[in-house]
Write a structure and sequence with these properties.
heterodimer, A: mainly alpha, MetI-like fold, two-stranded antiparallel ribbon, 14 helices, 2 strands, about 75% helix, about 0% strand, B: alpha+beta, Rossmann fold, OB fold (Dihydrolipoamide Acetyltransferase, E2P), 2 domains, 6-stranded mixed beta sheet, about 30% strand
Chain lengths: ~290, ~375
């Protein structure tokens, strides 16, 4: 027991650099935001007034907020499901590649190393209404592409760019998941008379469900928070707020509109929302993926 | 219920490695064939080719006289029990067993009836709702068997199905597999590297080495008249002792000077004094009581004694030689390390092989490839 007592402080010392970083860049700002949410502050930060829940009430009473919520839900669902479906398809194909497998896999993982803003710029270029290569092709097909004017197209653009960015991450996990499925299971299924399609849906897909569940949580969080850079670099929330997601609205209201109190209240609400969503996923989905 | 015909079945991988060099075999309806051999002898490849999991490079495979080379595994109407059981972890025992029936479009009620019937047959009726994770190794093995049985296939394929079980369970399951196979009368091919399993299960035993069949026959035939030195060394435990000897006429001379009656006098007009490889099974060496040495014996010094209860294994070195021999002596013997002993080989049960080709020299009948009727 004496030895144990003696070492009580050492673990904390060893952990302190990491704890300091987390405290400085997460807990402190988070606490600041929470505090801010209860004040109204002037744009120059010279003075502030305690207003209790007024910021929250104002946010929850505004139609703009609910519109952004709707856009976020559509955007997140599109990004999470799209990125997972495409990644699964690519992983299944890459799993079958025998020659040059490493090269293919490396290439498929690359987009993950691209910064979100760069991904946005890239897609923005390709689909630029005047200069874009893809928009020119679409024009040839009779589709008039202009995401700077058409809200639906703007949404499609940010969803595509975000999917492209996140796909690599999902791909790595799906590929690992596929490779963890014993070959003999699929062989047994083949002998049991299941064709490739049936084998995939009755054996492979259910066995991937823990991976899929994990990715669903990660992709939701990604779509809610980390797509800010992509949106800012391509549509900046436009046109007419068609791609203004909740996290983008936090930025707009806080740093463009200088309504810091409302922005802080929104970020607290957003944090709560994602927490709730993750909780629900764990609660209702995780039970189904255990075997 | 089916016959199988393997005609010059070969397997060459894209990298040029040939795993099987033309395997010929006829398997009778209801027969249990055990394929045995060391690692890498091609036995698993052979089984996977029968299952359709590996393509056939050359030769022909026929089930019930119908060529199946190009059929998918599902179309061959075979069932396979895998070494790791390959149970679907996300399905209950009942679903695992019913999976093949479901794929074939068998209605739910009939599926249920068949699964329950099979479960009763192998004692799984209380476990039908469990997941594979909740079962012991032996129970999983049973489910794997049940999954094969419920389909009523033409052929059962077993890929070392008992190698993941502990020794006691292995003996139990071995007996059970034998009983079930006889009861159901389904033609079976069973791959193993365990020669006790091979000897006890097989109607006929196929010994493979280096992608070729060394010998086919009943276990006792292979034990008593191994066609090659390889089979002689592989079948029987502990392995047969091999000694260099010279034969002239019907006399075998060992390097230590001992002379034994040869079981085979050689062909007429053969040059005298040819080198041969002499094989003596450990159980065909007996200790000669002191003072009764009448020639035809081996003088040895004991190096290790392994008492097994029912018998004792004596590892000994021939006097003045490097050769080690093992003798299996009945009962518990008062033999200790360092003792000098006289061993007498049973000259009626000697085996002699060509030292170069390894072929048996006193066996004029060709290796038997035709099926014998199963017991």
């Amino acid at each position: 027991m004496a030895t144990f007592q003696h070492h009580r402080i050492t673990p904390w010392l060893l952990l302190s650099p990491q704890l300091a970083i987390v405290a400085m860049f997460f807990f402190w700002p988070a606490a600041q935001a929470m505090l801010q949410a209860f004040y109204v502050e002037d744009p120059f930060g010279l003075g502030r007034t305690f207003v209790a829940f007024e910021n929250f009430a104002r946010v929850l009473a505004s139609a703009e907020y609910y519109r952004a919520l709707g856009i976020t839900v559509a955007f997140s669902a599109g990004v999470a499901l799209g990125a997972m479906a495409l990644a699964l398809l690519l992983a299944v194909l890459a799993d079958r590649v025998i020659k040059g497998a490493t090269a293919y896999r490396t290439l498929l993982v690359w987009p993950y190393a691209v910064a979100p803003a760069v991904a946005g710029v890239l897609w923005g270029f390709m689909l630029d209404p005047e200069l874009g290569l893809i928009s020119a092709w679409l024009g040839a097909l009779g589709i008039d592409w202009n995401h700077q004017l058409n809200g639906g197209q703007a949404m499609a653009l940010v969803v595509m760019a975000s999917i492209w960015k996140q796909m690599s991450y999902n791909f790595v996990f799906f590929l690992a998941g596929l490779q963890a499925i014993p070959r003999s299971l699929l062989e047994a299924a083949a002998i049991d008379g299941a064709g490739p399609w049936r084998r995939f849906w009755t054996i492979t897909f259910p066995l991937l469900s823990p991976t899929s569940f994990f990715l669903l949580v990660m992709n939701s969080v990604y779509a809610f928070f980390e797509t800010f850079g992509t949106i800012d670099a391509t549509t900046a929330g436009g046109p007419g707020g068609a791609t203004r997601t909740l996290v983008y609205k936090v930025f707009e209201d806080g740093f463009i509109g200088y309504d810091l109190g409302s922005s802080a209240a929104q970020s607290v609400l957003l944090m709560g929302l994602v927490g709730l969503l993750t909780l629900l996923q764990f609660r209702y989905l995780e039970r189904k993926v255990q075997y | 219920m089916a016959t199988l015909r393997l005609d010059a079945l070969s397997k060459t991988y894209p990298n040029g490695f040939t795993a099987l060099h033309g395997v010929d075999l006829e398997i009778a309806d209801g027969e249990l064939i055990v394929v045995v051999g060391p690692s890498g002898c091609g036995k698993s490849t052979l089984l996977r080719m029968l299952a359709g999991l590996e393509s056939i490079s050359d030769g022909e495979l026929a089930i019930d006289g119908r060529r199946v080379n190009d059929l998918e595994p599902a179309e061959r109407d075979i069932a396979m029990v895998f070494q790791n059981y390959a149970l679907y972890p996300h399905m209950s025992v009942a679903d695992n067993m019913g999976y093949a029936l479901k794929n074939r479009g068998v209605p739910k009620a009939e599926r249920r009836r068949k699964v329950e019937e099979t479960a009763r047959l192998i004692g799984l009726e209380d476990l039908l709702d469990r997941r594979p994770k909740q079962l012991s190794g032996g129970q999983r093995q049973r489910v794997a068997m049940g999954r094969a049985i419920v389909r009523e296939p033409k052929v059962f394929l077993f890929d070392e199905p008992l190698s993941n079980l502990d020794a006691k369970l292995r003996v139990q399951m071995r007996i059970e597999i034998r009983r079930l196979q006889k009861r159901l009368g389904v033609t079976s091919v069973y791959v193993t590297h365990d020669q006790v399993e091979a000897m006890t299960l097989a109607d006929r035993l196929v010994v493979m080495n280096g992608g070729r069949i060394e010998q086919v026959g009943t276990p006792m035939h292979l034990y008593e008249r191994p066609a090659t030195r390889f089979v002689a060394g592989f079948i029987g435990s502990p392995a047969m002792n091999f000694l260099d000897a010279r034969r002239s006429g019907d006399v075998l001379t060992l390097p230590c000077g001992t002379q034994l009656a040869s079981p085979w006098p050689g062909e007429a007009g053969e040059t005298r004094d040819t080198p041969v490889c002499l094989g003596i099974r450990p159980e065909h060496l007996a200790i000669v009581p002191e003072g009764q040495n009448g020639g035809g014996t081996l003088a040895v010094r004991v190096e290790l004694v392994e008492p097994l209860g029912a018998d004792t294994l004596v590892h000994a070195r021939l006097d003045g030689q490097d050769d080690l021999v093992v003798a299996r002596i009945d009962g518990i013997q008062p033999v200790a390390e360092g003792d000098s002993l006289i061993l007498r080989p049973d000259t009626d049960r000697l085996h002699i092989f060509d030292p170069d080709s390894g072929q048996r020299l006193d066996d004029l009948e060709p290796a038997c490839h035709t099926p014998t009727s199963p017991a």
